[in-house]
Specification:
Radius of gyration: 15 Å
Strand content: 25-35%
Structural class: alpha+beta
Largest sheet: 4 strands, antiparallel
Protein name: Helix-turn-helix domain-containing protein
Helix content: 40-55%
InterPro entries: WH-like_DNA-bd_sf, WH_DNA-bd_sf
Region (Disordered): 97-118
Number of strands: 7
CATH topology: Arc Repressor Mutant, subunit A
Distance between the termini: 33 Å
Number of domains: 1
Organism: Natronosalvus rutilus
Order of helices and strands: EEHHEHHEEEEH
Pfam families: HTH_20
Strand order of the largest sheet: 1-2-7-6
Length: 118
Amino acid sequence: MTRGGWTEQRNSESDALLSALGSKYSAEILCAAGTPKSAQALSEDIEVPIATCYRRIEELVDAGLLECEGRKLSNEGRRTNIYRRTLDEIEVDFSSERPQFSQKRRTEAKNRLQDRLR
């Protein structure tokens, strides 16, 4: 369901969102992933161990909050995945029997504009 640019989630999707957001470092990773970044860059930016960062990235991708935007060569010459968050805002409503989530998705136009400004 959509209202004013916000997309509401179903129960199973809401459970995945709540689980992913409840993990330590998830919010920090989402904040840092406003621009495309590798797991290594995210790990360094928020000062979290790389193994933990990879686990959180997997949870966030599974919940649809983060996506792999492509691959690029690292400074060491290895192919590495580049991630960016899929939303800018999320709203949680606890007034019902189950939490209800609404999220404001990032548009491709916003991503392209942000990439040009970097």
